[in-house]
Amino acid sequence: MSLQLFISILFGTLFLLLLIFRVVEPTYVLIFNKPLYIHWYPFSKKLKLSQRQILINDFPFYNRLSAKKKMYFEHRIIEFVAKYQFIGKDINVTEQMQILIAGTYVMLTFGMRNYLVNLFDKIIIYPFNYFSIVNQAHHKGEFNPRMKAVVFSWEDFIIGHSTSNDNINLGLHEFSHVLHFHCLKSNDPSATVFFDAFNEVIKYYSDPVLNKELTRTDYFRLYAYENQFEFLSLILEHFFETPHVFKSLHPELYAHVAAMINFKDE
Protein backbone atom coordinates (compact mmCIF):
# COMPACT_ATOMS: atom_id res chain seq x y z
CA MET A 1 0.00 0.00 0.00
CA SER A 2 1.39 3.36 -1.00
CA LEU A 3 1.80 6.14 1.56
CA GLN A 4 -0.64 8.32 -0.37
CA LEU A 5 -3.32 5.58 -0.30
CA PHE A 6 -2.74 4.97 3.41
CA ILE A 7 -3.14 8.69 4.19
CA SER A 8 -6.31 8.82 2.09
CA ILE A 9 -7.79 5.86 3.97
CA LEU A 10 -6.78 7.34 7.32
CA PHE A 11 -8.36 10.71 6.59
CA GLY A 12 -11.45 8.99 5.18
CA THR A 13 -11.83 6.98 8.37
CA LEU A 14 -11.37 10.04 10.56
CA PHE A 15 -13.94 11.95 8.50
CA LEU A 16 -16.41 9.06 8.84
CA LEU A 17 -15.92 8.96 12.62
CA LEU A 18 -16.38 12.72 12.83
CA LEU A 19 -19.57 12.42 10.79
CA ILE A 20 -20.88 9.71 13.12
CA PHE A 21 -20.26 11.73 16.26
CA ARG A 22 -21.35 15.12 14.92
CA VAL A 23 -24.36 14.10 12.82
CA VAL A 24 -25.38 10.46 13.20
CA GLU A 25 -25.21 10.12 16.99
CA PRO A 26 -27.25 13.25 17.86
CA THR A 27 -29.96 11.96 15.52
CA TYR A 28 -29.74 8.51 17.08
CA VAL A 29 -30.03 10.00 20.58
CA LEU A 30 -33.05 12.03 19.51
CA ILE A 31 -34.83 8.97 18.08
CA PHE A 32 -33.85 6.22 20.52
CA ASN A 33 -33.10 8.30 23.65
CA LYS A 34 -29.74 6.61 24.29
CA PRO A 35 -26.14 6.96 23.05
CA LEU A 36 -25.07 5.16 19.88
CA TYR A 37 -22.85 2.89 21.97
CA ILE A 38 -21.82 2.57 25.62
CA HIS A 39 -18.97 0.10 25.98
CA TRP A 40 -15.90 -0.12 23.75
CA TYR A 41 -12.58 -1.04 25.31
CA PRO A 42 -9.89 -2.15 22.82
CA PHE A 43 -7.58 -3.10 25.71
CA SER A 44 -9.96 -4.33 28.40
CA LYS A 45 -8.48 -4.54 31.91
CA LYS A 46 -9.28 -7.32 34.38
CA LEU A 47 -9.36 -7.29 38.15
CA LYS A 48 -7.06 -9.50 40.18
CA LEU A 49 -8.69 -12.63 41.57
CA SER A 50 -8.78 -11.17 45.10
CA GLN A 51 -10.47 -8.01 43.81
CA ARG A 52 -13.01 -9.96 41.76
CA GLN A 53 -13.82 -12.08 44.80
CA ILE A 54 -14.86 -8.93 46.68
CA LEU A 55 -17.44 -8.27 43.98
CA ILE A 56 -18.59 -11.90 43.96
CA ASN A 57 -19.02 -11.87 47.75
CA ASP A 58 -20.43 -8.39 48.26
CA PHE A 59 -21.87 -6.95 45.06
CA PRO A 60 -25.14 -8.56 43.85
CA PHE A 61 -25.40 -6.20 40.86
CA TYR A 62 -22.12 -7.57 39.48
CA ASN A 63 -23.24 -11.17 39.94
CA ARG A 64 -26.37 -10.56 37.86
CA LEU A 65 -24.39 -9.32 34.85
CA SER A 66 -23.58 -11.43 31.81
CA ALA A 67 -19.96 -12.59 31.40
CA LYS A 68 -19.30 -9.84 28.84
CA LYS A 69 -20.78 -7.10 31.02
CA LYS A 70 -18.81 -8.34 34.01
CA MET A 71 -15.69 -7.65 31.94
CA TYR A 72 -16.96 -4.11 31.22
CA PHE A 73 -17.77 -3.60 34.91
CA GLU A 74 -14.30 -4.72 36.01
CA HIS A 75 -12.59 -2.51 33.43
CA ARG A 76 -14.51 0.52 34.66
CA ILE A 77 -13.63 -0.20 38.28
CA ILE A 78 -9.92 -0.31 37.41
CA GLU A 79 -10.21 2.97 35.52
CA PHE A 80 -12.07 4.59 38.42
CA VAL A 81 -9.49 3.51 41.00
CA ALA A 82 -6.68 4.74 38.75
CA LYS A 83 -8.28 8.15 38.16
CA TYR A 84 -9.35 9.15 41.67
CA GLN A 85 -7.21 9.39 44.79
CA PHE A 86 -8.41 7.52 47.89
CA ILE A 87 -7.51 9.27 51.14
CA GLY A 88 -8.07 7.74 54.56
CA LYS A 89 -8.61 10.02 57.58
CA ASP A 90 -7.71 8.04 60.71
CA ILE A 91 -8.35 4.87 58.72
CA ASN A 92 -6.32 2.73 56.34
CA VAL A 93 -7.77 2.53 52.84
CA THR A 94 -8.20 -1.13 51.94
CA GLU A 95 -8.75 -2.92 48.66
CA GLN A 96 -12.31 -3.69 49.76
CA MET A 97 -13.02 0.01 50.26
CA GLN A 98 -11.73 0.87 46.80
CA ILE A 99 -13.63 -1.92 45.06
CA LEU A 100 -16.97 -1.34 46.79
CA ILE A 101 -16.86 2.45 46.42
CA ALA A 102 -15.78 2.21 42.78
CA GLY A 103 -18.39 -0.49 42.15
CA THR A 104 -21.17 1.73 43.51
CA TYR A 105 -20.20 4.54 41.15
CA VAL A 106 -19.81 2.18 38.18
CA MET A 107 -23.22 0.62 38.89
CA LEU A 108 -24.88 4.04 38.91
CA THR A 109 -23.21 5.12 35.64
CA PHE A 110 -23.11 1.76 33.86
CA GLY A 111 -25.51 2.94 31.16
CA MET A 112 -23.38 5.99 30.34
CA ARG A 113 -20.41 6.14 27.97
CA ASN A 114 -18.53 9.05 29.55
CA TYR A 115 -18.67 7.90 33.15
CA LEU A 116 -15.45 9.36 34.58
CA VAL A 117 -16.02 13.02 35.42
CA ASN A 118 -13.74 15.83 36.55
CA LEU A 119 -16.02 17.32 39.20
CA PHE A 120 -14.06 15.44 41.85
CA ASP A 121 -10.57 14.03 42.01
CA LYS A 122 -10.49 12.39 45.43
CA ILE A 123 -12.47 10.10 47.72
CA ILE A 124 -11.99 10.93 51.42
CA ILE A 125 -12.89 8.20 53.90
CA TYR A 126 -13.47 8.63 57.63
CA PRO A 127 -14.05 5.63 59.94
CA PHE A 128 -17.27 7.13 61.37
CA ASN A 129 -19.38 10.27 60.92
CA TYR A 130 -17.16 13.33 60.84
CA PHE A 131 -17.30 17.07 61.48
CA SER A 132 -17.65 19.07 58.26
CA ILE A 133 -16.13 22.54 58.19
CA VAL A 134 -18.47 23.48 55.33
CA ASN A 135 -21.53 23.89 57.53
CA GLN A 136 -20.10 23.20 60.98
CA ALA A 137 -22.04 19.97 61.44
CA HIS A 138 -21.45 16.23 61.65
CA HIS A 139 -21.93 14.35 58.39
CA LYS A 140 -22.10 10.78 57.14
CA GLY A 141 -21.08 11.83 53.63
CA GLU A 142 -21.01 14.70 51.18
CA PHE A 143 -20.03 15.87 47.73
CA ASN A 144 -17.89 19.00 48.01
CA PRO A 145 -17.43 20.61 44.55
CA ARG A 146 -15.02 23.26 45.86
CA MET A 147 -12.67 20.66 47.32
CA LYS A 148 -13.39 18.36 44.35
CA ALA A 149 -14.04 15.63 46.88
CA VAL A 150 -16.59 12.96 47.70
CA VAL A 151 -16.49 12.14 51.41
CA PHE A 152 -17.78 9.05 53.21
CA SER A 153 -18.06 7.69 56.72
CA TRP A 154 -16.98 4.10 56.07
CA GLU A 155 -19.25 2.80 58.82
CA ASP A 156 -22.28 4.38 57.15
CA PHE A 157 -21.17 3.50 53.63
CA ILE A 158 -20.86 -0.20 54.45
CA ILE A 159 -24.17 -0.26 56.35
CA GLY A 160 -25.89 1.28 53.35
CA HIS A 161 -24.20 -1.13 50.96
CA SER A 162 -24.91 -4.24 53.04
CA THR A 163 -28.57 -3.45 53.76
CA SER A 164 -30.28 -3.74 50.43
CA ASN A 165 -33.94 -3.16 51.26
CA ASP A 166 -34.12 0.01 53.39
CA ASN A 167 -33.62 2.47 50.49
CA ILE A 168 -30.72 4.12 52.30
CA ASN A 169 -27.41 3.83 50.47
CA LEU A 170 -24.82 6.49 51.25
CA GLY A 171 -22.62 5.66 48.27
CA LEU A 172 -25.45 5.93 45.77
CA HIS A 173 -26.71 9.08 47.47
CA GLU A 174 -23.49 11.08 47.24
CA PHE A 175 -22.51 9.83 43.79
CA SER A 176 -26.00 10.79 42.57
CA HIS A 177 -25.19 14.38 43.53
CA VAL A 178 -22.02 14.15 41.43
CA LEU A 179 -23.93 12.74 38.47
CA HIS A 180 -26.62 15.41 38.79
CA PHE A 181 -24.10 18.26 38.73
CA HIS A 182 -22.16 16.70 35.85
CA CYS A 183 -25.17 16.23 33.61
CA LEU A 184 -26.37 19.78 34.22
CA LYS A 185 -23.04 21.07 32.91
CA SER A 186 -22.12 18.58 30.18
CA ASN A 187 -23.51 18.12 26.67
CA ASP A 188 -22.20 14.64 25.89
CA PRO A 189 -24.85 12.14 24.64
CA SER A 190 -25.34 10.42 28.01
CA ALA A 191 -25.71 13.76 29.78
CA THR A 192 -28.23 14.89 27.16
CA VAL A 193 -30.31 11.75 27.72
CA PHE A 194 -30.03 12.22 31.49
CA PHE A 195 -31.10 15.85 31.37
CA ASP A 196 -34.13 15.19 29.15
CA ALA A 197 -35.42 12.42 31.41
CA PHE A 198 -34.51 14.40 34.54
CA ASN A 199 -36.95 17.11 33.43
CA GLU A 200 -39.69 14.46 33.56
CA VAL A 201 -38.51 13.05 36.88
CA ILE A 202 -38.35 16.41 38.61
CA LYS A 203 -41.99 17.11 37.75
CA TYR A 204 -42.85 14.64 40.51
CA TYR A 205 -41.15 17.04 42.90
CA SER A 206 -42.51 20.32 41.53
CA ASP A 207 -45.96 19.42 40.20
CA PRO A 208 -48.55 19.36 43.04
CA VAL A 209 -50.66 16.62 41.44
CA LEU A 210 -47.74 14.30 40.74
CA ASN A 211 -46.21 15.10 44.12
CA LYS A 212 -49.45 14.14 45.86
CA GLU A 213 -49.31 10.80 44.06
CA LEU A 214 -45.90 10.12 45.61
CA THR A 215 -46.77 11.20 49.14
CA ARG A 216 -49.96 9.12 49.04
CA THR A 217 -48.00 5.86 48.92
CA ASP A 218 -45.51 7.03 51.58
CA TYR A 219 -42.79 5.12 49.69
CA PHE A 220 -40.16 7.88 49.70
CA ARG A 221 -38.97 9.21 53.04
CA LEU A 222 -39.66 12.88 53.78
CA TYR A 223 -36.08 13.96 53.15
CA ALA A 224 -36.76 13.46 49.43
CA TYR A 225 -38.81 16.66 49.43
CA GLU A 226 -36.06 18.91 50.85
CA ASN A 227 -34.98 20.10 47.39
CA GLN A 228 -34.57 18.76 43.86
CA PHE A 229 -31.02 17.52 44.53
CA GLU A 230 -32.07 15.38 47.48
CA PHE A 231 -35.17 14.28 45.60
CA LEU A 232 -33.08 12.89 42.77
CA SER A 233 -30.61 11.16 45.11
CA LEU A 234 -33.34 9.46 47.11
CA ILE A 235 -35.14 8.45 43.93
CA LEU A 236 -31.97 6.70 42.72
CA GLU A 237 -31.43 5.00 46.09
CA HIS A 238 -34.92 3.52 45.84
CA PHE A 239 -34.40 2.63 42.18
CA PHE A 240 -31.44 0.37 42.96
CA GLU A 241 -32.45 -0.90 46.40
CA THR A 242 -36.12 -1.87 45.92
CA PRO A 243 -36.73 -1.72 42.15
CA HIS A 244 -39.69 -4.12 42.11
CA VAL A 245 -41.57 -2.10 44.73
CA PHE A 246 -40.70 1.15 42.95
CA LYS A 247 -41.90 -0.18 39.60
CA SER A 248 -45.10 -1.52 41.14
CA LEU A 249 -46.04 1.67 42.99
CA HIS A 250 -44.84 4.29 40.49
CA PRO A 251 -44.31 2.66 37.08
CA GLU A 252 -44.14 5.88 35.04
CA LEU A 253 -41.60 7.51 37.34
CA TYR A 254 -39.58 4.28 37.36
CA ALA A 255 -39.50 4.31 33.55
CA HIS A 256 -38.27 7.93 33.51
CA VAL A 257 -35.47 7.10 35.95
CA ALA A 258 -34.46 4.04 33.93
CA ALA A 259 -34.32 6.19 30.78
CA MET A 260 -32.39 8.90 32.64
CA ILE A 261 -29.44 6.64 33.44
CA ASN A 262 -29.97 4.34 30.43
CA PHE A 263 -30.51 1.40 32.79
CA LYS A 264 -31.29 -2.06 31.46
CA ASP A 265 -32.46 -4.88 33.71
CA GLU A 266 -29.73 -7.52 33.53
Automatic annotation (TrEMBL):
GO MF, one example: aminopeptidase activity
CDD domains listed in its UniProt record: Peptidase_M90-like (cd20170)
Cited SUPFAM superfamilies: Metalloproteases ('zincins'), catalytic domain
One cellular component (GO) term of this entry: cytosol
Descriptive protein name: Zinc-dependent peptidase
Organism: Flavobacterium psychrolimnae
